[in-house]
Write a structure and sequence with these properties.
The complex is a heterodimer.
Chain A (H helix, E strand, L loop, with lengths): L1 E10 L6 E11 L4 E5 L6 H7 L8 E6 L2 E2 L5 H8 L2 E5 L10 H11 L4 H14 L15 H13 L5 E5 L7 H18 L2 E6 L2 H7 L2 E6 L2 E7 H6 L4 H11 L2 H13 L4 E8 L7 H8 L3 E12 L2 E11 L2 H13 L3 E7 L1
Parallel strand pairs in A: 3-8, 3-9, 6-7, 7-8
Antiparallel strand pairs in A: 1-2, 1-4, 4-5, 9-10, 11-13, 11-14, 12-13
Chain B lengths: L1 H4 L5 H35 L9 H16 L2 H7 L1 H8 L5 H25 L3 H9 L4 H12 L1 H24 L4 H11 L4 H29 L3
Classes of the chains: A alpha/beta, B mainly alpha.
């Protein structure tokens, strides 16, 4: 569906120029939800704007559905944009228009007849769950409702690709989840390809099939979401993964434990897929004469399956602990010794 | 009672003068609105990072706007006498006041338009672009539509300033309440005529302000 080939985007001229996107090559499949994660300044905003020609690459090509976005302009580009629509962090609705009029705006641009605009807008209002609010103005809506209008507006011209520019970053966690559910539903129901950029691993985890991690304009890691969660390669990826698997409280709990009981071994267990459902811990305690403290644990559900981590403190004879760890490894549970006192 | 309070007022002349003032204000406000919008939109779109980003156009337009905005109106009228003579064919009467009124007010309003457009969230313009909007659509359906309350309150202020300008133009014979107050009131020492002319001007100003405020209130959905 989407091909990015050797894309570089520089801002400025000569030695002062900055590479916002640096030699990126990507392929995104039809119907996929593809996430791009990175901290601010990583170049993800620029990258997503290359997909609808809001930015043009300094070198390289962008092709979407056979159309070379990076080589067209004028009328052809404007028509292409109707099939690659976009939603925004701050919604960017026209406040002078009602919900319905906002949704009809792209249809006006596409030259759709009034009766058809009305019909399509009514359909979309229903799809995004805003029935009864069609005549409200954006200022009368909550953030989540505004984003629903943004999504309806983006779907008006039956696009093939939906670009989400930090679409949930201005929303509270609960609203974020409802918007993400809506996006998943749209992806499944309409078979739309979704490309989203975010700095929240939660968003990637919840809806993406594949993820690319960006740092300093480069894609440093790319793969299936579950795989990236299990085996993050780059340190930046590990940091993003730990947003989900190691909440701040867990780190505090570890620090606290080290002070309270300055003995034993802290280990982190990683379970993947069906391993998350096996009673590994019970058998561990039964087999070995050691004390086991559970410091922190969680299970993360991604599109590709579940992924769990458990941080344990093992107190007892060093040799027995060694055997216990070996036992866990034999059970196909990945272990990582955090500290050995 | 009115006859006692205003013994020297010729009501027919007063009414004619009021109509002339209203005529000058209405026509100059309308043309100032149109020309000011063109200037403001041109200033905005030719600005750095905008759709028609063009340093030369931006600088020249900005310079013209600043120049005409800075000339005191009473001097502008005198400077424009040859121009007025050329276009209108006379330098007396309400129509002769129009070129000076418009050239004095349009750049002032153009600046207000620019400020109003700069208040629009850049993201909204980007959103319209991402939907494949033409520049014309962006100008009319985004820029002007989204800044309409500010544009209307701006034209209200400008229109009230224009009422004042018409009175000043009256001194050099444009007609209207200004001429009446000056020639009939001041020069013939009839204070009641001056007072009546003032009262009528105030009423005109209040009505303009009222209509402007009402329109802004109705349009502002923020």
């Amino acid at each position: 569906m989407i091909h990015l080939t050797d894309i570089t985007k520089r801002f400025g001229e000569g030695p002062d120029s900055i590479s916002a996107v640096d030699n990126v090559t990507l392929e995104i499949a039809d119907g996929e939800i593809f996430g791009i994660i990175g901290y601010s300044g990583a170049g993800k905003s620029t990258l997503i704007r290359l997909l609808n020609g809001l930015e043009m690459p300094t070198s390289g090509h962008v092709t979407i559905g056979g159309r070379k976005i990076s080589a067209i302009k004028g009328k052809e580009l404007r028509e292409a944009r109707q099939k690659v629509s976009m939603i925004f962090q701050h919604f960017n609705l026209l406040w002078s228009r009602t919900v319905k009029e906002n949704i009809m705006f792209p249809l006006e641009i596409a030259g759709v007849r009034k009766a058809d605009r009305e019909r399509k807008a009514a359909e979309l209002i229903d799809l995004v769950g805003l029935s009864g609010r069609e005549n409200a103005y954006p200022s009368e809506l909550s953030g989540g409702q505004k984003q629903r209008v943004g999504i309806a507006r983006a779907l008006a011209n039956d696009p093939e690709v939906l670009l989400c520019d930090e679409a949930t970053s201005a929303l509270d966690p609960e609203t974020t989840d409802s918007i993400l559910n809506l996006l998943t539903e749209i992806n499944e129901r309409l078979g739309l390809t979704i490309v989203l950029i975010t700095h929240e691993m939660h968003v990637i985890r919840k809806i993406c099939h594949r993820v690319a991690v960006m740092e300093a304009g480069k894609v440093v890691e790319i793969g299936d979401v579950l795989k990236v969660f299990q085996e993050p390669q780059e340190s930046i990826t590990k940091r993003f993964v730990s947003q989900i698997t190691e909440p701040v409280e867990a780190k505090q709990a570890i620090e606290h434990l080290k002070e309270e009981i300055p003995s034993g071994t802290l280990i982190k267990l990683v379970f993947v897929g069906e391993r998350t459902e096996q009673p590994v811990l019970a058998s561990l305690i039964r087999e070995f004469t050691i004390d086991v403290n559970i410091v922190q644990g969680n299970i993360t559900h991604t599109h590709g399956g579940a992924y769990g981590t458990l941080i344990l403190q093992l107190v007892g004879d060093a040799e027995v602990i060694g055997k216990a760890i070996q036992y866990l490894n034999e059970k196909d549970v990945r272990t990582e010794v955090i500290s050995n006192v | 009672m009115f006859e006692n309070l205003f013994p020297n007022v010729d009501w027919t002349a007063m009414w004619e003068a009021t109509k002339e003032t209203l005529y000058m204000t209405a026509v100059s406000t309308f043309l100032t609105f149109v020309i000011g919008l063109v200037l403001g939109v041109l200033l905005f779109l030719s600005g750095p990072g905008q759709l028609w980003s063009n340093k030369i156009v931006n600088t020249i337009t900005g310079a013209i706007v600043n120049l005409f905005r800075s000339i005191p109106f009473i001097i502008l009228i005198i400077l424009l006498i040859p121009f007025t003579q050329f276009i209108i064919g006379t330098v007396r009467g309400p129509n002769a006041a129009l070129p000076a009124l418009i050239i004095g007010a349009a750049p002032f309003y153009g600046r207000m338009v620019l400020i109003a457009l700069q208040e629009i969230d850049k993201g909204v313009i980007e959103a319209a672009k991402s939907m494949g909007a033409k520049t014309r659509t962006i100008i009319f359906k985004v820029l002007l539509a989204e800044s309409m309350p500010a544009l209307i309150s701006g034209i209200t202020v400008t229109s009230i300033a224009l009422v004042g300008y018409t009175a000043m133009a009256g001194i050099i014979g444009a007609g209207g309440l200004g001429t009446l107050a000056y020639l009939d009131g001041f020069q013939r020492n009839r204070a009641d005529v001056t007072l009546m002319a003032t009262i009528l001007i105030l009423i005109v100003v209040f009505i303009i302000q009222f209509i402007g405020d009402l329109a802004v209130k109705k349009m502002d959905k923020r």
